[in-house]
Design goal:
Radius of gyration: 25 Å
Number of helices: 13
CATH topology of one domain: Rossmann fold
CATH superfamily of one domain: Alpha/Beta hydrolase fold, catalytic domain
CATH class of one domain: Alpha Beta
Strand order of the largest sheet: 30-31-33-32-34-35-36-37
Helix content: 10-25%
Largest sheet: 8 strands, mixed
Distance between the termini: 50 Å
């Protein structure tokens, strides 16, 4: 069972191939070129609004920094919403007039509408549960069927929730082992601020209990399906305390949630001390008499404790330490009295060890699987063995550790990404989600003999991909490191340096940027473009070393790897600086923001989606303190230097000819506060001398993109591709 938050959600958005739902005061206005077909007539939206300058100066370890738009961090400031509205109106006036937008949107709607997306699968009680956005639908729904081939029945349709302005999204869910109940979370307008609900599968009826503040609740059902452990937030929404000091609780079906016992929180249990950014989760495993307590934050590693399950339920657990953060444990499996741990310390590609659940001891643990040439990412327990998810430089592999200790390779139908492996510990085989750059996502089954087949749960779209090709290459970084990247384009491409090219990158949290069906981006390729993805350091393509090489003080490697890839593309005549763009979402905003500010001459356009732009100010937003292990702690000299190095807002220089930039935000974003891109927009508009547009696109009923509807994603994609073609065709 893979531990920690699934960073795949941070890449989910509307404009990239990994879309799964799955992503200021100006000294002068940025003009739209008069000769352009997109020129706008004089009026309220002809130019972006000029925001006030109200400089605040901060001194860190002897260095003073100026912040002219600090006031934007206060979303109650009377000028905040007018600024967003004015910027968005200006952006709409520009983008809506682009001659390619209408045809792009039509093609995008066809591509996304024909594509059925399945995001999670679970077998329970002889039933198959899965989340799916059906063909032509606008949002995900929860379905159930008898076995793998029975008729579908809708259990949760968030589009039918009444009395809500905007839209409602299904955030997460988990069925009880007997298949009789499902616990799930709903939130409004992409906010991810989940309200927990419980339904009865037989008739779809709701139980009376509801539990608020359950974003990332991670419910863990007891074997008898009578109740579940869950995590609950305690901080107020839209405050820096939102994700701090969450607590682990237990809910018994039919009981009053207000009386749910708190089983772990900071200061509750003597001898277990941890930081406010760490979240306690209690995990249980079928048939095991112990439970695992995890204390996790943004790091892939976790702290782990173990205690008898009966004592945990009774609230009298005496937790025994299993591992600390410095032990670099990234996955745990409990099988009877055996505790399996995936360890990265000393083996950055991972090794699997086994120790006693009753008396765990890492020093004396047996090595079950030593470190190999590829990265051991995670495990999933089935009756026929432990399925092993392997990462090979961005390409997924699958193995199985049988009960006799033998490890066998399982042949996959194509090179691509295994999104997740779904198993039931007392049933044979596995289900897995898999996709490739030009292969639509599907749910595949694996039997004990290692045979794989498409279950048909996700119907294949009628999208002909025979005209496209995806090729993988390696660019040399400044220090000689080979950086993988992939290009997708129409066959017969001529290398003359004039092709519009858009390269995306991420590079954070140890999360690998892996293949996913091109989908909407084929509209950009059809228009004559190249879409590419750079596997920069900071991700997990080659294990913990690759992550650490783009983390904290090593973070500059991340955007310089992207620069190296782009320089190679120009040298090979795939494109040239006047036809080249880069893009990133969320933490990818750091990557593209610093590439933009360090090498503005290399790009014609930049797309920054819900991106971190001003991480030096993390302490004022609700998702800030939790990022300290990845970016740095501002109260420490080394942490400040690391944070300043990744802050693109502070790196903007007046009088610089910056490329065209499109920045996007969602007003309800719980992960990257809208002030990041708003401040960056204002600063770029004030500083640039190029005359190229700097546009801010605002979605008022969306957040980070995870809960966005298909139509929202379609519109953002059309805006993005139209903007890129406008700028990259010269």
């Amino acid at each position: 069972m893979k531990i920690g938050f699934d960073r795949r959600q941070f890449l989910a958005g509307s404009t990239g191939a990994l879309s799964l739902t799955l992503l200021p005061h100006a000294l002068f206005a940025t003009p739209v070129p008069a000769a352009s077909a997109t020129a706008v007539s004089p009026g309220s939206a002809a130019t972006p609004p000029v925001a006030r300058i109200d400089v605040v100066r901060d001194t860190y370890f002897g260095e003073t920094l100026s912040d002219p738009y600090r006031w934007m961090e206060n979303d109650k400031d009377p000028e905040w919403l007018p600024f967003l509205k004015g910027q968005n109106e200006h952006t709409r006036a520009v983008l809506d007039k682009l001659p390619t937008r209408t045809s792009l949107l039509k093609r995008i709607q066809q591509l996304s509408g024909d594509t059925v997306a399945t995001s999670h699968v679970q077998r329970a009680g002889g039933l198959l549960f899965f989340t799916q956005r059906p063909k032509g639908a606008d949002n995900f729904k929860l379905f159930v069927r008898q076995g793998e081939h029975g008729p579908n029945r809708v259990l949760v349709d968030p589009t039918l929730v009444s009395g809500v302005a905007g839209h409602v999204s299904l955030d997460w869910w988990r069925a009880a082992p007997d298949g009789r109940h499902v616990v799930y979370g709903l939130s409004k307008n992409g906010s991810e601020d989940s309200m927990l609900h419980i339904l009865t599968v037989a008739d779809g009826g709701l139980l009376t209990e509801q539990i608020p503040n359950t974003q990332d609740a991670n419910p863990q059902w007891l074997d008898d399906s009578s109740g579940f452990f869950y995590n609950q937030l305690t901080g107020a929404v839209d405050t820096p305390q939102r994700f701090l000091d969450s607590q682990a609780r237990f809910h018994r079906l039919g009981s009053d949630p207000s009386s749910d016992p708190v089983l772990m929180k900071r200061g509750l249990v003597a001898g277990i001390e941890y930081e406010k950014i760490q979240s306690p989760n209690i995990l249980i495993y079928h048939g095991a008499r112990h439970a695992i307590l995890l204390l996790s934050d943004v790091r892939p590693e976790t702290r782990a404790y173990i205690a008898p399950l009966a004592d945990v339920i009774a609230g009298r657990a005496q937790w025994t330490a299993v591992a600390a953060f410095e032990d670099e444990i990234t996955d745990i499996d409990l099988h009877g009295e055996d505790l399996y741990l995936l360890v990265n310390k000393g083996t950055p590609r991972g090794r699997l060890i086994k120790t006693s659940a009753a008396a765990p001891n890492l020093a004396t643990a047996a090595v079950v699987i030593p470190q190999g040439p590829f990265v051991l990412e995670g495990t999933a327990r089935a009756r026929d063995g432990l399925y092993l998810q392997i990462m090979d430089g961005g390409i997924s592999r699958l193995q199985r550790l049988a009960t006799d200790g033998k490890v066998t390779d399982i042949a996959l139908p194509f090179d691509g990404t295994i999104g997740s492996v779904y198993t039931v510990s007392n049933e044979d085989g596995a289900l897995l989600s898999m996709t490739g750059w030009l292969t639509p996502a599907g749910i595949y089954s694996v039997d004990p003999a290692g045979r794989m087949q498409d279950t048909g749960v996700t119907p294949k779209p009628a999208i002909d991909v025979s005209a496209y090709e995806a090729k993988r290459f390696f660019a040399a970084a400044k220090d000689g490191t080979k950086i993988p990247y992939t290009l997708i384009y129409r066959k017969g491409l001529k290398l003359n340096g004039s092709t519009p090219t858009w390269i995306s990158a991420y590079g954070s949290y140890g999360y690998p940027y892996t293949p996913a069906f091109a989908g909407r981006t084929l509209a950009f390729v059809d228009a004559g473009g190249i879409v590419g993805y750079a596997n920069v350091r900071g991700g997990g393509e080659y294990g913990r070393e690759w992550h650490k090489a783009g983390q904290l003080t090593s973070k500059p490697n991340t955007w310089r790897d992207l620069i190296a890839v782009c320089e190679e593309l120009c040298a090979k005549k795939y494109t040239s600086p006047q036809h080249l763009a880069i893009g990133g979402r969320s933490a990818g905003g750091i990557t593209v923001g610093r590439a933009l500010t360090e090498r503005p001459d290399l790009f014609a356009a930049v797309v920054d989606g819900v991106g971190w732009s001003n991480p030096l100010r993390y302490m004022v937003e609700q998702n800030g303190y939790g990022e300290e292990p990845e970016w740095g702690v501002i109260t420490e000299a080394a942490g400040y230097r690391a944070l300043k190095s990744i802050d693109s807002y502070q790196a903007v220089k007046d009088g610089t000819p910056y490329p065209a930039v499109l920045l996007t935000t969602g007003v309800t974003d719980p992960r990257v506060a809208p002030f990041h891109v708003a401040k960056m927009t204002a600063r770029l508009q004030a500083a640039t001398s190029s005359g190229k547009p700097v546009l801010l696109r605002v979605d008022y009923d969306a957040g980070h993109g995870i809960g966005s509807t298909r139509s929202q994603q379609d519109r953002e994609a059309a805006d993005t591709y139209a903007f890129l073609l406008w700028q990259l065709r010269g």
